[in-house]
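Run: sequence + arginine -> complex structure.
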Amino acid sequence: MATRKHKLWEGRFAAATAPIVEQFTSSIALDKRLAPYDIAGSLAHCHMLVACGIIPAVDGKRICKGLAEIEREIVDGTFRYDAADEDIHMAIERRLIEKIGPAGGRLHTARSRNDQVALDLRLFVRAEIGMILKSITTFQKVLAATARRHAQVIMPGYTHLQRAQPVLFAHHLLAYHEKLERDGERFSDCRRRADVMPLGSGALAGTTFPIDPDQVARELRFARVATNSIDAVSERDFIVEFLAASAMLATHLSRLAEEIILWSSTEFGFVSLPDEFATGSSIMPQKKNPDVAELVRGKTGRVYGNLVAMLTILKGLPLAYNRDLQEDKVPLFDTADTVKGCLAVMTAMIPRLVIHADRMREATSDGFLVATDVADYLVTKGVPFREAHHVVGQAVRRCIDSRRRLEDLTLKEWRELSPAFGADVREWLSIDAAIARRTAGSGTAPANVARRLRRL
Ligand code: ARG
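>> structure
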């Protein structure tokens, strides 16, 4: 049952860890991706230990040199990971001692893996947010550019997936721009709270050594230092917030993906997918499927699941550190990779969509999309809106019964419904006029949309 390796913590044990336990508790397969952050944190910690006179400067030098070499081994792929290492922190320390001898054993002075992993995760989340914010901005640029390119295109706007009122396609796309803007704010906000340096908390109670956490924070560019050691090693709020911001972002990407799936169907025919972004069927030769958009929609399930997983890991944990927390890496890494992947593929696909302006326009012509405008017209003639709504509802019913459109009603028929109608009702029946009239507030009028696009 004995394992080959010596453990860095084996002192109080008489028997070696069972292999099945070693396997079960190991997180190295996942957390090896924290290596660059772990090394950066160790370098800063070592510099501080030397500056505070806690370890000899010569040993500090050897440690830093050893860490730099280990980093190179990891980058080159020559670093040998071992399940017996348990996690990345042990792997690096084990290798350091292998390389430079007992001096390597001084690095872990005034530190615990509990504050070490909290530091690594904060560095990781900070870096991932930086990348995601860049990707969000790029995606927003693509949305704005696509809106600009199709500035004149008119489509039916929907409520309940029923044609409702005509809108500019650009206005519709820019709705996603706004959603993504809020996503960016949520990630920035999350980064602000992740930007706290936890080292010095030790296992949970702090340390007996005269450390200088501010120096470590300065070197690693943290805005603040943790103020309660028990909190610092037990909290993963910043991960929950990251996962929540990601869940919201995934929701927005999923809704756009869903629209692309609908729009590219024969029933809608609003857009065509470029061949490079569609897939075929293994049995039906005619098929061209929107699998990319479907996967963006589908992966949202994982992103939600990861948020719930993290919350659930935390909910019953007594303070401070518990090994349960090691499970934080699974949802964190998966969500970071998933949202980056979804953003990248949507950013690549959107500008390549072929927009069928004629089909969109055609879809605005039946379905009484200007009914609200006719009611508004009556209001300008002094009719209370509720009454106007009723009158136009009757007009719609008359059209449905006689298979006509609102434009086909004669002035005589309009006047039978309400004497307030005049010949100028014509001007309120045009789709373009309906759009142009919506200049107030955040409406779809071309002037509004153009102004918004200029500002972006
Ligand atoms: N691999 C551990 C984690 O990810 C590191 C901290 C381990 N601490 C401990 N006391 N076992 O949470």
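>> summary
Strands lie at 154-159, 162-168, 196-197, 224-225, 271-272, 354-355. Residues 27, 31, 87, 113-114, 117, 321, 323, 325-326 surround arginine (CB under 6 Å).
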